[in-house]
Specification:
This protein is 68% helix and 5% strand. Helix 3 packs parallel to helix 7. It starts with a helix and ends in an 11-residue tail after the last strand.
């Protein structure tokens, strides 16, 4: 399907354009888009928040296999089955993300999913060959089988299912939130920045893991550093949504000016009378 597309799809670009001028023009276009998008503070803050927690998501999904092979001794067979198992639940998570949005709203769905991922992260870190929940439950053999025979193995399979559901739901809710928060006439540009934001800083998560692992001499402590990215993303996202909720509740015109208020940060005051009174 991909090869025929590239062979027969017509390119709308200008043929014969020199390489370096094209790169320069493209880079200038990205800068202009970022500057223009920054005028919409709440949507731009969401992109910043998404950049932060997407780094954590990438590190969690990319390095979970390394962690489980080290602490549970899984080989290529177990890891392959685990990947297929998590992919099945990821498909369910895409549907669950839409359900969370409809029941909770994009904001609450995103915040709930981020907190769930942090809980799942620490739950996974509590599983070793010897115990579960950091020593509260002792590991034991459940049945005779070449793979996934112990309680720890089965528990981490459950953890993988939860990661698949909530990680995919978070991706779904993030896209839904961008549709809600981005200005209608700039949705294309914001989705372009959304894609860039999820790729240019993917090195931060692995770097944090390396630093914390070196500092503590513990792989588990190193993996727990991912939670910092989720917490930071949560904080930025919650701040942006708090102000967005006020603006959406009291829609104002472009004549509005910004006023810093302690209880919401960047609120909005208009020349007309608002249907509520600001605190002194």
């Amino acid at each position: 399907m991909i090869v025929p597309f590239f062979l027969y799809a017509k390119d709308t670009g200008v043929k014969g354009t020199p390489f370096f001028p094209s790169v320069k023009e493209g880079a200038a276009g990205v800068v202009r888009t970022v500057r223009k998008a920054a005028e919409y503070r709440e949507a731009f803050k969401f992109l910043i928040a998404r950049t932060i927690y997407a780094d954590g998501m990438f590190a969690l999904l990319a390095l979970a296999a390394v962690y489980v092979s080290l602490f549970l001794g899984w080989g290529i067979v177990e890891l392959t089955v685990y990947a297929i198992w998590a992919s099945i639940w990821a498909a369910i998570g895409g549907v669950a993300g839409g359900w969370f949005d409809s029941k909770l709203g994009p904001k609450n769905a995103l915040l709930m999913e981020l907190m769930a991922i942090v809980i799942i992260l620490f739950f996974g870190l509590s599983v070793t060959r010897d115990s579960i929940l950091f020593g509260l439950i002792e590991n034991r053999e459940l049945w005779q089988a070449p793979v996934f025979s112990s309680l720890s193995d089965v528990t981490y399979l459950l953890n993988g299912a939860l990661i698949g559901v909530f990680a995919t739901a978070n991706i779904s809710s993030s896209r839904s939130m961008l549709v809600h928060i981005a200005p209608t006439h700039m949705r294309g540009e914001f989705f372009g920045l959304y894609a860039i934001a999820g790729t240019v800083t993917v090195w931060i998560g692995p770097l944090l893991i390396e630093l914390f692992t070196t500092w503590s001499n513990s792989q588990r402590v190193g993996m727990s550093a991912i939670a910092l990215l989720f917490f930071c993303g949560f904080a930025v996202e919650d701040t942006a949504f708090t102000r967005l909720a006020l603006i959406q509740r009291y829609p104002l015109t472009h004549e509005c000016t910004h006023l810093w208020l302690a209880f919401v940060g960047n609120a909005v005051v208009c020349k007309r009378t608002l249907p509520f009174t600001f605190p002194p």
